[in-house]
From TrEMBL:
SUPFAM superfamilies: Adenine nucleotide alpha hydrolases-like. GO terms for molecular function: catalytic activity. This is Phosphoadenosine phosphosulfate reductase family protein. It comes from Edaphosphingomonas laterariae. InterPro entries: PAPS_reduct_dom, Rossmann-like_a/b/a_fold.
Length: 389
């Protein structure tokens, strides 16, 4: 065990150890590639440091290790890229920075709302879909991180065993309580693939507590991101994260470098009429940073949001989105109610009202059902149908 890890144990009064299993030990012994995912946050940095020393003890060659960072663009703290570079240099391994070719996190939110409006106009969705990711739809981590890092590693190290080292801890949330130490990752290297590439995910510090992680930073002399020490954030992700607490959102607004991003995201709230988080408007976190014009736009958006929710709540519940939507053609009365509710929402967003009457709505539902049934016949009923976010 390394000196740094021994000191961490002494400081915390506990004995946190690097979690591993026979599959990881074998991968290390056979010279697998280890890719350390760095976000700039405390968990990824400490995970990489502790795992590096654990691998050193096993004699794993350092030249078969790499750090990787998925750059989320404007959504990041401005200091994050530099922090990631600092940690990679301290680890003494090369850094691979990857980016989503279709645009950054902010562009993804904007694209989602634009797509949602187009589909709502075409009556391909029952309710208007907002721009933001959420706890149940975390495309921020899937599309802009995993779906970018995974293929990049699979291409770079084709034919190898690749271990992605990620700093998830069970203490972080109830959803992570059952995080495994190791799992096979078939998303980007399916079993029996032509290149014979194997991918695994390893969570070395899965049983560590926050106090262990912070003590480890102190013991190893690892720097902490400014979000923690300068601004009091409890975690690091995007500067403004859809999963952040009110306190962490407030912490982000105290950094002047985040002010333009803050106003831009509030502008998306104003345009879309969807709050950044369910029940919490980002605009309310630091209203003193908003211009008078933007504050007025937010007030109007909040009113429009209440109106939209009331209108959608009054639409027939039996026709709400389910897998394979739509379930049936509305009745005449239902069609009229849907058309009336949609007209207000469409007008608010400057969209064309292509189905302004109950009869037009019913005809559109009938066309959607016909198209779905035709697809089902071709695919054996395996398609999920329309209405997916």
């Amino acid at each position: 065990m390394s000196f740094a890890i021994r000191r961490t144990r002494a400081l915390t009064g506990r004995t946190p150890a690097v979690a591993a299993d026979p599959a990881i030990i074998e991968a290390a012994a056979t010279g697998a590639w280890f890719a350390f995912s760095l976000s700039g946050g405390k968990d990824s940095s400490m995970t990489a440091w502790a795992a590096m020393e654990w691998l050193d003890d096993l004699g794993h060659p350092r030249e078969r290790r790499i750090a990787v960072h998925a750059d989320l663009g404007r959504a990041e703290w401005r200091s994050t890229p530099a922090m990631v570079e600092v940690i990679a240099r301290r680890l003494e391994i090369p850094l691979l920075v990857v980016r989503r070719s279709a645009g950054d996190m902010v562009a993804r939110w904007e694209q989602r709302f634009a797509s949602g409006k187009a589909r709502y106009e075409a009556l391909e969705t029952y309710n208007l879909i907002g721009p933001w990711s959420s706890s149940s739809l975390r495309f921020c981590t899937s599309e802009l991180k995993a779906q970018v890092i995974g293929p990049a590693l699979a291409r770079r190290f084709a034919g190898e065993t690749i271990v992605s080292v990620i700093g998830l801890r069970r203490e972080e949330s109830p959803a992570r309580r059952f995080t495994p130490v190791v799992r096979e990752d078939h998303r980007f290297a399916k079993p029996g693939n032509r290149a014979n590439t194997r991918m695994m995910v390893w969570h070395p510090l899965v049983d560590w507590r926050t106090v262990d992680v912070l003590a480890g930073h102190d013991a190893c002399g690892l720097p902490l991101h400014e979000a923690y020490g300068c601004y009091g954030s409890s975690r690091l992700s995007c500067a403004f994260c859809v999963l952040a607490s009110a306190a962490d959102l407030g912490a982000a607004t105290r950094a002047q470098d985040n002010h333009n991003l803050y106003r831009h995201l509030v502008g998306i709230e104003a345009e879309s009429t969807f709050s950044f988080q369910p029940g919490r408007w980002l605009a309310d976190v630091a209203p003193h940073l908003l211009s008078n014009a933007l504050a007025r736009q937010i007030a109007d958006a909040k009113h429009a949001a209440s109106e939209r929710r009331a209108l959608e709540a009054g639409m027939p519940s039996g026709l709400r989105f389910v897998k394979g939507w739509p379930p049936r053609v509305p009745t005449r009365d239902e069609g009229s109610r849907i058309a009336a509710a949609r007209s207000v929402i469409l007008r608010r967003h400057g969209l064309e009202d292509r189905y302004p009457t109950g009869a037009a709505v019913r005809a559109r539902f009938d066309a959607l059902l016909t198209a779905r049934n035709a697809r089902d016949r071709q695919t054996g009923g395996k398609e999920a149908g329309l209405g997916r976010a």
